[in-house]
Design brief:
This protein is of the alpha+beta class. It is built from 11 helices and 9 strands. It has helices at 6-16, 67-77, 122-141, 158-172, 179-190, 234-241, 260-263, 268-278, 287-310, 318-321, 324-335; strands at 27-31, 40-45, 48-54, 87-91, 101-105, 200-202, 211-213, 220-223, 230-232. The strands form 3 sheets. It has a 5-stranded antiparallel β-sheet with strand order 1-2-3-5-4, with helices on both faces. The chain has a two-stranded antiparallel sheet with strand order 6-9. A hairpin with a 6-residue loop joins strand 7 and strand 8 (220-223). It is globular and about 65 Å long.
């Protein structure tokens, strides 16, 4: 049944949620498609509706797939102005299902993988994007100490540490070198802004595809996929969130070549201004922050390609997504204002 042992899972659920069923309770589960990192499943246990997230099988890079941290931050944010699903139980014993996992409540809503939001009206698209900006501002307004996350990461030197981390992950990759990534590994450290001391809970992967929206209303009801979260600089999340404006539709659903006004999608500058209007005082977004976000996502795609070659990727689309590492690296070079290979960026109306 799709990578989980039904008998073992039934026994585990019986221990942790005995009120919802016993030996004869109905159990059903199915993988959720689209995830490239931690395999995720819908689980029905009696009348209870759950989501189960686990670490992937096979070798993983140090610090990657940190579902324990994901569980912790979900519990900490429960009850704040940041919409998150309720995290219920963390199972750290890998012997149960082969890798550590946790379960959380299942919410009913919409998740959009295409940043062009096909099928929606221009008014709905605009409202959805502005809701994302407001949700990010609410996250960054939470004080880590106030929710028990004061030790969730180091409070200073975020970009320096992140550059070391992602550069090291790229260096450890057994795959082919990417010239644009090598170029960025020189440019980014040389153009890093001085640390101004801003610290927030940083999601680490804050983008439209990791939001769940109300079934009928254009507002965020849950922020998902917190495995990369830490204490960090708010502009790291903001830079990551504006990537769709810098990537094409065939580059993981970007909107670079689309007519934003016709679609009702705010311009990047308006989106950023809307965030600032709702956020705590935050410095301006620079070329460095935008290039860094694309560099980091390129390295994530390097990891996806590596897992595809090793046969341990969470999605059967990983082999197709791996080549996006070079595309995102090129976009990062462009965002930095450097000379590099061109990719399609023509404007077309939809």
């Amino acid at each position: 049944m799709s990578g989980l042992d039904a008998t073992t899972l039934r026994d585990w659920l019986s221990r942790h949620f005995p009120e919802d069923g016993g030996p004869d309770a109905a159990l059903a589960f199915e993988p959720i498609s689209g995830g490239q990192s931690n395999p995720t499943y819908f689980v029905n246990w009696g009348a209870r509706r759950l989501v189960l997230r686990r670490k992937p099988t096979g070798p993983i890079l140090p610090g990657a797939h940190a579902i324990e941290r994901e569980f912790r931050v979900l519990r900490a944010l429960d009850g704040t102005d940041v919409p998150v699903p309720r995290a219920l139980v963390l199972e750290e014993d890998a012997e149960v299902l082969g890798t550590p996992f946790y379960v959380m409540e299942r919410l009913e809503g919409r998740v959009f993988s295409d940043c062009a939001l096909p099928g929606l009206s221009p008014e709905e698209r605009r409202a959805i994007y502005l809701s994302v900006a407001e949700t990010l501002a609410r996250l960054h307004a939470v004080r880590p100490d106030a929710v028990g996350l004061g030790d969730y990461g180091r409070p200073s030197g975020y970009f320096e540490r992140q550059l070391r981390r992602w550069s090291a992950q790229y260096a450890r990759s057994p795959g082919p070198r990417i010239a644009a990534l090598d170029q960025l590994m020189e440019w980014l450290p040389a153009n890093m802004p001085a640390d101004n001391g801003a610290v927030s809970i940083a999601h680490g992967d804050f983008r439209l595809g990791n939001m769940m929206f109300h079934p009928t209303e254009p507002r965020v009801i849950a922020v998902l996929d917190w495995e990369l979260s830490t204490l960090g600089h708010p502009l790291a999340d903001l830079g990551f969130c504006v990537m769709p404006w810098q990537t094409a539709p065939d580059e993981y659903g970007g909107i670079l070549s689309l007519d934003h006004a016709a679609l009702g999608i705010p311009a990047r500058e308006e989106f950023v201004a809307h965030y600032h209007a709702h956020a705590r005082p935050t410095p301006e977004l620079t070329l460095f922050h935008r290039a860094f976000a694309l560099f980091r996502f390129a390295v994530i795609f390097v990891g996806i390609a590596d897992r595809a070659r090793a046969g341990s990727a969470a999605s059967n689309e990983a082999a197709e997504l791996g080549p996006l590492a070079e595309r995102f690296a090129i976009r990062a070079v462009q965002a930095a204002g450097l000379d590099g290979p061109d990719t399609r960026a023509e404007t077309r109306k939809v």
